Amino acid sequence: MTSITIARKLLTSGCVAAALLLSVSAAAQEAPKPVMDPASSQDEIKQFCTNIADPARDQRYLLQKQELEKLQADIDQRIATMDKRKAEYEDWLKRRDDFLKTADSGLVDIYKNMKPDAAAASLNDVKVTVAAAIIMKLSPRQSSLILAEMDAQKAAVVTNIISSASDPNTSKSKDPS
C-alpha cells in the first residue's frame, strides 16, 4: 500500500495526521536521505494539507449529502405510510359517524316506545357505553324507569358513566368508562 493511499484513507482523520503518516511511510520505503531541515518539512506538510483540503472537504460533503438523502427517503416513506393510515382512519371515522347519525335517532326512538322492563332487559345485554348513551337521550322519567328495572350492578355502572359524562370537571379526552 503506498503512502498516498494511506494518506487518502486518513483524510477524514485530519490533514496533519495524514501528512505525518505519509512522511513516515515514504521514509520507510526509500533509502535514507540526507536530513532535511525542519522548516522545509513543515512547508511540505503545509503544502500537502493545502492541496488535499478541498478534495477532502468535497468528499466529506458528498458523504453527508448521501446520508441526508437516505434519511430524507426514510422520512418520505414514513410520511407516506402515515398519510395512508390517516386516510384509512378518516374513512373509518366517517363511516362510523354516518352510521351513528342514522342509527342514533332510530335506536333512541325504539327504546322510547318500549316498556321500561323490556328496555331494561334489552339494555342489560348491550355494551355499557351504548346503554348509557341511549339512556342519556331518553327523557329523565323514562331513564329512571329503565334504570330501576335493570340489573343493579349494570345500572350503577351506567349511572357512573352518565355522571362522569355530564361532569364539567371531567376532561373530554378522559374515557368515562
Quick tags:
cilium, 177 residues, mainly alpha, rod-shaped, disordered C terminus, 80% helix, Flagellar motility protein MotE (MotC chaperone)
User: Topology as H/E string?
Assistant: HHHHHHH
- pLDDT < 50 stretches: 170-177
Cα separation of the termini: 73 Å
**Number of helical segments with 4 or more residues:** 7
Largest sheet: number of strands, sense, barrel closure? none
Shape category: rod-shaped
Got a strand count? 0
Helix content: over 70%
Strand content: under 5%
Question: Rg from C-alpha positions?
Answer: 39 Å
**Structural class by sheet pairing and helices:** mainly alpha
Q: Mean pLDDT across all residues, rounded?
A: 77
In short:
This is Flagellar motility protein MotE (MotC chaperone). The protein has 177 residues and is mostly helical. The protein has helices at residues 3-9, 15-29, 38-113, 116-124, 128-137, 140-149, 152-166.
